[in-house]
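User: Sequence in, structure out. Go.
Assistant: Echoing your sequence, followed by the structure tokens.
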Amino acid sequence: MKLASKYTSALQSQQFDAIIIGSGISGLAAAVLLSRAGRRVLVLEQHFKVGGYTHAFQRKGYEWDVGLHYVGDLHRPHSISKVIFDEISGGNLKWAPMGEVYDRIIFPDQSYDFVAGHENFRNKMISYFPREERAISRYLDLVREVSKSMKKYAMNKALPSAAAKLAYQMMSAGFLKYASQTTLEVLSSLTSDKKLIGVLTGQWGDYGLPPARSSFAMHAILANHYLDGANYPVGGSGRIAETIVPELEKLGGVVAVHAPVDEILLHKNRVVGVRLQNGDELNAPVVISSAGVFNTFGKLLKSATGSDTSKNLERVQRSTSYVCLYLGFKHSARELGLEKTNLWVYSGYDHDRTLADYLDNPGTAQVPLTYLSFASAKDPSWEERHPDTATMEAISVAPFEWFTKWQDTGWQKRGSEYEAFKKELTDRLLEKIYETLPQIRGKIDHVETSTPLSNRHFSGYEFGELYGLDHSPERFQQRWLRPQTRIKNLFLTGQDVVSCGITGALLSGALTVSAILRKNVIGEVLQRAGKKI
């Protein structure tokens, strides 16, 4: 389905109230919500496909997700994320539950199921660790407590600067109490059982930092997000953009692909528009960047860099990059015995140590993490759309530094040495997959591998980072990470504003529009849906 037109210079003559850089879920959400307020919006996407990390791609009759593998909290009709998704998709985006077991954490000696439902999860963990009942119960209490406190912390970011500053301590103190501690610090205060800590942090790949480096607040948000179960979009992740873009166009908005922005244009510290890489200039009184803070302040604001900006960027770090295998089979998921459940395959319970060993000794150390996802099992419409086939994504850590010698080469033109290195990574990951799923050996029809360079090419992140900024304790203490910037009418959105993930980016889009309109947009959306915030 063709969702957007290729950029044409004729757009220069059209009038827009706002230009949004990037068509990920934050950019699309902001575009629709701003359009509902009567603003005419232009979304510019540098890629040839709309959707950012929510888009899907096809090759040789197979289809894969590039970033969305499951989303929590969407089976509850009153959840904020479900109501916003319904609002921006016109109610046309449907979700299928993944069933009782959404994640399986696999170690060399045992597997552990993450099951839907707070009490179910609690009882399941206690069945694995009967001596740790008190620690498990206290852990789940903290997960809910921190997640609840995040609402005020996030809403503070949408307030005007003066009001946000006055209310910051009151609105953020509860959240920052745990955001300033690492996941390992908090869990170590609850239990001394290293295996239990390894299991409870078995989803660390969903936010990109192992326990000793991640903020407990990020861990708690993520864990709470899935406690009641996980969901997958009916029709695949590509349905997200396929349902949102038509809704935006009904409201007079425009999405243009092949439209890489080169510079955000300013006049006397006020936004006036953007310049594209082809030299075209488009004017608008408001610009929203969903390109990430490093791209926004480090690349696009060519005339507005300064010591304050440099100091801010020095206080945060980019998140990890990764390698992903896309596998295709001429067999159905049922024939292959593939389930909806995501598989997290680890080489040991001490995630920080196994990751450090791998990064220090990539040629000899065991792969610390392999994440396996099966869209063809999760999507109830798969058999109708792609009969007698199945696909799988396999993801693992791969630092950008491994690929720097090829960083100046072009996509699919990186040379034989690069292809040989990529094959070496592919073969190692395939062996890890066969250890877990021996029944698929010899049945793979198609395999291709993306690296941090591939991710940089398509996402625009300079070092192929997956989650924007690292979700460390330091990151959550940065007050400048908010929609409003020091440049008049330049706003930020995306996973750098509050947190990573599809729903983190979705909510940031709503917060950004709240900041622009100076009203509680999330509250208005909930009110229209007959819900309360």
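User: And one key feature?
Assistant: The CA atoms of residues 105 and 191 lie 19 Å apart.
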